[in-house]
Amino acid sequence: MLWVFTTLVAAVGQTARNAMQSSLTASLGTLGATQVRFLYGFPFALVFLALVTAFARASVPGPTAAFIVYTSAGALAQIFATALMLAAMRTRAFSVAITFTKTEAVQVALFGFVFLGDALTGARVVAIAIATAGVIVVAAKPGSDWSARSAKPLLLGIASGGLFALAAVGFRGGILALGDGPYFLRATTTLVWSLGIQASLLGAWLVAFDRAALARSLAVWRQSVFAGFMGAFASQFWFLGFSLTAAANVRTLALVEVLFAQAVSRRVFGQRVSTREAAGMALVVAGVALLLLAP
User: Fold this and answer.
1) Are 190 and 108 in contact (CB under 8 A)?
2) Burial tier of 295 (Cβ tally within 10 Å: 0-12, 13-18, 19+)
3) How do residues 208-259 score in pLDDT, each as one tens digit?
4) What is the pLDDT of residue 100?
5) How far apart are CA 221 and CA 119, in angstroms?
Protein backbone atom coordinates (compact mmCIF):
# COMPACT_ATOMS: atom_id res chain seq x y z
CA MET A 1 0.00 0.00 0.00
CA LEU A 2 3.01 2.32 -0.26
CA TRP A 3 1.57 3.53 -3.59
CA VAL A 4 -1.29 5.15 -1.63
CA PHE A 5 1.15 7.34 0.30
CA THR A 6 3.18 8.31 -2.79
CA THR A 7 0.02 9.18 -4.75
CA LEU A 8 -1.40 11.37 -1.98
CA VAL A 9 1.91 13.22 -1.65
CA ALA A 10 1.97 13.69 -5.44
CA ALA A 11 -1.59 15.06 -5.44
CA VAL A 12 -0.72 17.60 -2.74
CA GLY A 13 2.41 18.62 -4.61
CA GLN A 14 0.53 18.97 -7.88
CA THR A 15 -2.10 21.18 -6.23
CA ALA A 16 0.67 23.50 -5.05
CA ARG A 17 2.38 23.43 -8.45
CA ASN A 18 -0.84 24.26 -10.28
CA ALA A 19 -1.42 27.24 -8.00
CA MET A 20 2.07 28.56 -8.71
CA GLN A 21 1.87 27.91 -12.43
CA SER A 22 -1.47 29.72 -12.67
CA SER A 23 0.16 32.80 -11.16
CA LEU A 24 2.89 32.66 -13.83
CA THR A 25 0.51 32.26 -16.77
CA ALA A 26 -0.49 35.94 -16.79
CA SER A 27 3.11 37.09 -17.30
CA LEU A 28 4.58 34.20 -19.30
CA GLY A 29 1.65 32.97 -21.35
CA THR A 30 0.38 29.41 -21.40
CA LEU A 31 3.36 27.77 -23.14
CA GLY A 32 5.86 29.83 -21.18
CA ALA A 33 4.32 28.81 -17.87
CA THR A 34 4.11 25.19 -19.03
CA GLN A 35 7.77 25.18 -20.01
CA VAL A 36 8.69 26.28 -16.47
CA ARG A 37 7.51 22.90 -15.21
CA PHE A 38 9.97 21.08 -17.47
CA LEU A 39 12.91 23.46 -17.86
CA TYR A 40 13.24 24.30 -14.17
CA GLY A 41 12.08 20.88 -13.00
CA PHE A 42 14.71 18.92 -14.94
CA PRO A 43 17.71 19.95 -12.75
CA PHE A 44 15.82 18.93 -9.62
CA ALA A 45 15.06 15.55 -11.19
CA LEU A 46 18.80 15.09 -11.72
CA VAL A 47 19.37 15.88 -8.04
CA PHE A 48 16.70 13.34 -7.07
CA LEU A 49 18.42 10.74 -9.26
CA ALA A 50 21.79 11.42 -7.62
CA LEU A 51 20.23 11.01 -4.17
CA VAL A 52 18.40 7.75 -4.89
CA THR A 53 21.46 6.34 -6.65
CA ALA A 54 23.58 7.02 -3.57
CA PHE A 55 20.87 5.56 -1.32
CA ALA A 56 20.52 2.40 -3.40
CA ARG A 57 24.30 2.10 -3.84
CA ALA A 58 23.62 1.14 -7.41
CA SER A 59 24.30 2.57 -10.84
CA VAL A 60 21.65 4.19 -12.99
CA PRO A 61 19.98 1.51 -15.13
CA GLY A 62 20.83 1.71 -18.81
CA PRO A 63 18.00 2.46 -21.25
CA THR A 64 16.57 -0.35 -23.30
CA ALA A 65 14.78 0.05 -26.61
CA ALA A 66 11.43 -0.61 -24.91
CA PHE A 67 12.23 1.96 -22.21
CA ILE A 68 12.99 4.67 -24.77
CA VAL A 69 9.82 3.91 -26.74
CA TYR A 70 7.54 3.91 -23.68
CA THR A 71 9.09 6.96 -22.02
CA SER A 72 9.24 9.02 -25.21
CA ALA A 73 5.64 8.12 -26.00
CA GLY A 74 4.58 9.15 -22.48
CA ALA A 75 6.46 12.46 -22.69
CA LEU A 76 5.00 13.32 -26.10
CA ALA A 77 1.50 12.25 -25.09
CA GLN A 78 1.66 14.54 -22.05
CA ILE A 79 2.68 17.52 -24.18
CA PHE A 80 -0.07 16.94 -26.76
CA ALA A 81 -2.62 16.26 -24.00
CA THR A 82 -1.86 19.67 -22.54
CA ALA A 83 -2.13 21.29 -25.99
CA LEU A 84 -5.56 19.73 -26.59
CA MET A 85 -6.74 20.78 -23.14
CA LEU A 86 -5.67 24.36 -23.85
CA ALA A 87 -7.44 24.23 -27.22
CA ALA A 88 -10.61 23.10 -25.45
CA MET A 89 -10.27 25.97 -22.99
CA ARG A 90 -10.49 28.46 -25.84
CA THR A 91 -13.98 27.28 -26.82
CA ARG A 92 -17.27 28.55 -25.43
CA ALA A 93 -18.03 25.20 -23.80
CA PHE A 94 -15.09 25.48 -21.38
CA SER A 95 -16.63 23.49 -18.54
CA VAL A 96 -17.84 20.72 -20.88
CA ALA A 97 -14.36 20.22 -22.32
CA ILE A 98 -12.61 20.23 -18.97
CA THR A 99 -15.18 17.83 -17.55
CA PHE A 100 -14.37 15.24 -20.18
CA THR A 101 -10.63 15.42 -19.58
CA LYS A 102 -11.54 13.85 -16.25
CA THR A 103 -12.34 10.59 -18.05
CA GLU A 104 -8.58 9.94 -17.85
CA ALA A 105 -8.98 7.47 -14.97
CA VAL A 106 -11.33 5.26 -17.00
CA GLN A 107 -9.18 5.47 -20.12
CA VAL A 108 -5.94 4.72 -18.28
CA ALA A 109 -7.51 1.51 -16.97
CA LEU A 110 -8.32 0.47 -20.53
CA PHE A 111 -4.92 1.42 -21.97
CA GLY A 112 -3.07 -0.18 -19.06
CA PHE A 113 -4.90 -3.44 -19.72
CA VAL A 114 -4.28 -3.31 -23.49
CA PHE A 115 -0.63 -2.22 -23.54
CA LEU A 116 0.78 -3.48 -20.24
CA GLY A 117 -1.57 -6.27 -19.26
CA ASP A 118 -2.44 -4.53 -15.96
CA ALA A 119 -5.22 -6.60 -14.44
CA LEU A 120 -8.19 -4.91 -12.75
CA THR A 121 -10.80 -6.68 -10.64
CA GLY A 122 -14.48 -5.96 -11.09
CA ALA A 123 -14.56 -4.04 -7.80
CA ARG A 124 -11.73 -1.77 -8.93
CA VAL A 125 -13.46 -1.07 -12.24
CA VAL A 126 -16.58 -0.02 -10.32
CA ALA A 127 -14.46 2.15 -8.00
CA ILE A 128 -12.86 3.93 -10.99
CA ALA A 129 -16.28 4.57 -12.53
CA ILE A 130 -17.74 5.96 -9.27
CA ALA A 131 -14.80 8.28 -8.60
CA THR A 132 -14.78 9.53 -12.19
CA ALA A 133 -18.52 10.20 -12.03
CA GLY A 134 -17.93 12.22 -8.89
CA VAL A 135 -15.35 14.42 -10.62
CA ILE A 136 -17.73 14.99 -13.53
CA VAL A 137 -20.50 16.02 -11.13
CA VAL A 138 -18.14 18.53 -9.48
CA ALA A 139 -16.85 19.92 -12.79
CA ALA A 140 -20.11 20.04 -14.78
CA LYS A 141 -21.51 23.41 -13.79
CA PRO A 142 -25.22 24.21 -14.29
CA GLY A 143 -25.89 26.08 -17.52
CA SER A 144 -23.05 24.41 -19.44
CA ASP A 145 -23.57 24.04 -23.18
CA TRP A 146 -24.32 20.38 -23.80
CA SER A 147 -25.85 20.94 -27.25
CA ALA A 148 -24.55 19.74 -30.59
CA ARG A 149 -22.37 22.85 -30.98
CA SER A 150 -20.34 21.68 -28.00
CA ALA A 151 -19.22 18.53 -29.87
CA LYS A 152 -15.79 19.93 -30.78
CA PRO A 153 -14.70 20.89 -27.25
CA LEU A 154 -16.24 17.68 -25.93
CA LEU A 155 -14.13 15.62 -28.34
CA LEU A 156 -11.06 17.71 -27.54
CA GLY A 157 -11.65 17.08 -23.84
CA ILE A 158 -12.00 13.33 -24.27
CA ALA A 159 -8.92 13.20 -26.53
CA SER A 160 -6.94 15.20 -23.97
CA GLY A 161 -7.97 12.81 -21.20
CA GLY A 162 -7.01 9.88 -23.43
CA LEU A 163 -3.57 11.31 -24.08
CA PHE A 164 -3.02 11.98 -20.38
CA ALA A 165 -3.97 8.33 -19.83
CA LEU A 166 -1.50 7.19 -22.50
CA ALA A 167 1.18 9.33 -20.82
CA ALA A 168 0.61 7.57 -17.49
CA VAL A 169 0.71 4.16 -19.16
CA GLY A 170 3.83 5.13 -21.13
CA PHE A 171 5.65 6.21 -17.98
CA ARG A 172 4.70 3.00 -16.17
CA GLY A 173 5.78 0.99 -19.20
CA GLY A 174 9.14 2.76 -19.19
CA ILE A 175 9.64 2.00 -15.50
CA LEU A 176 8.80 -1.67 -15.99
CA ALA A 177 11.13 -1.88 -19.01
CA LEU A 178 14.15 -1.06 -16.80
CA GLY A 179 14.09 -4.51 -15.22
CA ASP A 180 14.22 -5.61 -11.59
CA GLY A 181 16.30 -2.91 -9.90
CA PRO A 182 15.05 -0.85 -6.94
CA TYR A 183 11.64 0.58 -7.79
CA PHE A 184 12.59 4.09 -6.70
CA LEU A 185 15.72 4.09 -8.88
CA ARG A 186 13.76 2.95 -11.93
CA ALA A 187 11.05 5.55 -11.24
CA THR A 188 13.52 8.44 -10.90
CA THR A 189 15.49 7.37 -13.97
CA THR A 190 12.28 7.46 -16.01
CA LEU A 191 11.41 10.87 -14.56
CA VAL A 192 14.77 12.32 -15.63
CA TRP A 193 14.40 11.00 -19.16
CA SER A 194 10.81 12.23 -19.54
CA LEU A 195 11.55 15.73 -18.22
CA GLY A 196 14.68 15.92 -20.38
CA ILE A 197 12.68 15.04 -23.50
CA GLN A 198 9.93 17.51 -22.66
CA ALA A 199 12.27 20.38 -21.73
CA SER A 200 14.22 19.87 -24.96
CA LEU A 201 11.16 19.76 -27.20
CA LEU A 202 9.31 22.69 -25.64
CA GLY A 203 12.53 24.68 -25.29
CA ALA A 204 13.24 24.22 -29.01
CA TRP A 205 9.67 25.26 -29.83
CA LEU A 206 9.94 28.45 -27.77
CA VAL A 207 13.33 29.32 -29.25
CA ALA A 208 11.89 28.91 -32.74
CA PHE A 209 8.46 30.49 -32.28
CA ASP A 210 8.18 32.40 -28.98
CA ARG A 211 11.52 33.63 -27.69
CA ALA A 212 9.82 36.41 -25.75
CA ALA A 213 8.01 33.90 -23.52
CA LEU A 214 11.27 32.02 -22.91
CA ALA A 215 13.05 35.26 -22.03
CA ARG A 216 10.29 36.22 -19.60
CA SER A 217 10.52 32.80 -17.87
CA LEU A 218 14.24 33.39 -17.38
CA ALA A 219 13.58 36.89 -16.05
CA VAL A 220 11.26 35.59 -13.28
CA TRP A 221 13.62 32.79 -12.37
CA ARG A 222 12.93 32.96 -8.62
CA GLN A 223 9.23 32.10 -9.01
CA SER A 224 10.05 29.70 -11.84
CA VAL A 225 12.60 27.75 -9.80
CA PHE A 226 10.11 27.10 -7.02
CA ALA A 227 7.37 26.12 -9.49
CA GLY A 228 9.85 23.83 -11.24
CA PHE A 229 10.83 22.22 -7.95
CA MET A 230 7.21 21.55 -7.00
CA GLY A 231 6.57 20.12 -10.46
CA ALA A 232 9.56 17.77 -10.21
CA PHE A 233 8.63 16.88 -6.60
CA ALA A 234 5.05 15.97 -7.57
CA SER A 235 6.22 14.03 -10.63
CA GLN A 236 8.74 12.11 -8.53
CA PHE A 237 5.93 10.76 -6.38
CA TRP A 238 3.63 10.10 -9.37
CA PHE A 239 6.38 7.97 -10.89
CA LEU A 240 6.98 6.17 -7.60
CA GLY A 241 3.29 5.30 -7.62
CA PHE A 242 3.50 4.06 -11.22
CA SER A 243 6.42 1.81 -10.22
CA LEU A 244 4.40 0.20 -7.42
CA THR A 245 0.97 -0.44 -8.93
CA ALA A 246 -1.16 -0.17 -12.06
CA ALA A 247 -1.42 3.35 -13.49
CA ALA A 248 -5.22 3.13 -13.20
CA ASN A 249 -4.99 2.78 -9.41
CA VAL A 250 -2.70 5.81 -9.16
CA ARG A 251 -4.77 8.04 -11.44
CA THR A 252 -8.02 7.08 -9.71
CA LEU A 253 -6.70 7.84 -6.24
CA ALA A 254 -5.30 11.06 -7.73
CA LEU A 255 -8.88 12.29 -8.15
CA VAL A 256 -8.70 13.32 -4.49
CA GLU A 257 -6.93 16.36 -5.91
CA VAL A 258 -10.44 17.68 -6.54
CA LEU A 259 -11.00 17.62 -2.78
CA PHE A 260 -7.71 19.40 -2.16
CA ALA A 261 -8.57 22.08 -4.72
CA GLN A 262 -11.97 22.63 -3.10
CA ALA A 263 -10.32 22.94 0.30
CA VAL A 264 -7.89 25.54 -1.03
CA SER A 265 -10.74 27.47 -2.67
CA ARG A 266 -12.68 27.58 0.56
CA ARG A 267 -9.72 28.31 2.81
CA VAL A 268 -7.96 30.87 0.63
CA PHE A 269 -10.76 32.42 -1.36
CA GLY A 270 -13.69 31.92 1.01
CA GLN A 271 -15.74 30.09 -1.62
CA ARG A 272 -18.57 27.85 -0.41
CA VAL A 273 -19.19 24.35 -1.65
CA SER A 274 -22.54 23.89 -3.40
CA THR A 275 -24.82 20.91 -2.86
CA ARG A 276 -23.86 19.58 -6.29
CA GLU A 277 -20.15 19.86 -5.52
CA ALA A 278 -20.62 18.20 -2.14
CA ALA A 279 -22.46 15.30 -3.80
CA GLY A 280 -19.70 14.94 -6.39
CA MET A 281 -17.00 14.95 -3.73
CA ALA A 282 -18.91 12.29 -1.80
CA LEU A 283 -18.83 10.10 -4.92
CA VAL A 284 -15.08 10.69 -5.27
CA VAL A 285 -14.53 9.67 -1.65
CA ALA A 286 -16.75 6.60 -2.08
CA GLY A 287 -14.92 5.54 -5.24
CA VAL A 288 -11.51 6.01 -3.68
CA ALA A 289 -12.56 4.14 -0.53
CA LEU A 290 -13.80 1.22 -2.64
CA LEU A 291 -10.55 1.26 -4.61
CA LEU A 292 -8.50 0.98 -1.43
CA LEU A 293 -10.67 -1.79 -0.01
CA ALA A 294 -11.09 -3.77 -3.22
CA PRO A 295 -9.05 -6.98 -3.66
Assistant:
1) no
2) exposed
3) 988 887 888 788 778 888 888 988 999 999 999 999 999 988 988 887 776 6
4) 67
5) 44
d(CA 217, CA 268): 26
- Locate the domains of the chain by residue range: 2-293
- ∠ CA 110-238-11 to the nearest 5 degrees? 100
Phi, psi of 273, deg, nearest 5? -90, 130
With contact defined as beta carbons under 8 Å apart, do 53 and 59 qualify?
A: yes
Residue 36 near residue 228 (C-beta atoms within 8 A): yes
10 Å CB burial of residue 115 (0-12, 13-18, 19+) is: middle
Nearest Cα residue to 103 out of 238, 275, 255, 292: 255
Say what the pLDDT of residue 49 is.
Answer: 97
Torsion from C-alpha of 5, 120, 134, 165, nearest 10 degrees: 80
